[in-house]
Here is the input.
Amino acid sequence: MAKTSTRALWKGAITFGLVHIPVGLYSATEESDVNFDWLDRRSMDPVGYKRINKRTGREIARENIVKGVEYRKGEYVVLSPDEIKEAYPRTTQTIDIELFVEAGEIPFTYLEKPYYLAPINKGGKVYALLRETLKETGRAGVARVVIQAKEHLAMVMPCGPVLVLNLLRWEDEIRPWEDLDLPSASKAGLKPAELKMAKQLVDGMSGDWKAGQFHDNFHDAIMKLVERKAKAGKTEAVEPLEHVPEGEGAEVVDLTELLKRSLQGNRKPAARKTAAKTARTTKTTREKRHA
Here is the structure.
């Protein structure tokens, strides 16, 4: 198993209602694919990718490259850098939960990439409140989050002691299965005896899930080979990623009051006006005390 990452990739907050939970986003996975870099056989210099015109085979200057989206077959719409920039989502540094659903309702085909969320800046109590509430209700929060100038759909759900942010695929990224030739049990002609034997086979091969018993054999073989050859001193240095600055300290707030105000947000208009009037009166009283 890979080591736990303690470097926050992103710092912001989970929000729902008026509740604000300052959190850091940490990688929950580590890619184990073998990266093969291109090298010049004669000099061992790195080989990069050139900007090549696919029709003429000639290299193109950067200033002559534009970005286009295929509208119809062979027909492109060219977009300027400013038009593309304008379309980018605004960075908010928040994980905005819009809906709570039963955790089992989200098909696993929508799950894309998990991240750990950990409390920062005295957000431990509110973090624990959300985690325990989701555990007891069996629900997950469906949210939007902007990471690296890209908006993602995501779900927030507990996994043991940690809250996990799992990026989700959008609906139009999931291919339907209706066009596939999928046999039903009756059309396939399954016999009770066959089902019985298949269940016996599954039972005989069943056991407890232990991730450590499964390994990527190709990765292991390549890395052993690399380790042997590394004795000759042929290694590559990798520059560390830029340091993510610490976020500002979070204001200590009355959690109970925030929850009450969030619940009031779901009341009828008349009830909301009364709550707003009460909030204004409370604010005026506090200001007089500090005057």
Observations:
- Strands lie at 10-16, 19-27, 67-72, 75-79, 94-102, 111-119, 139-147, 150-159, 162-168.
- The CA atoms of residues 67 and 79 lie 6 Å apart.
- Confidence is low (pLDDT under 50) at residues 236-241, 243-252, 270-279, 285-291.
- Residues 10-33+66-171 form a domain with the Ku70; Chain: A; Domain 2 fold (CATH 2.40.290.10).
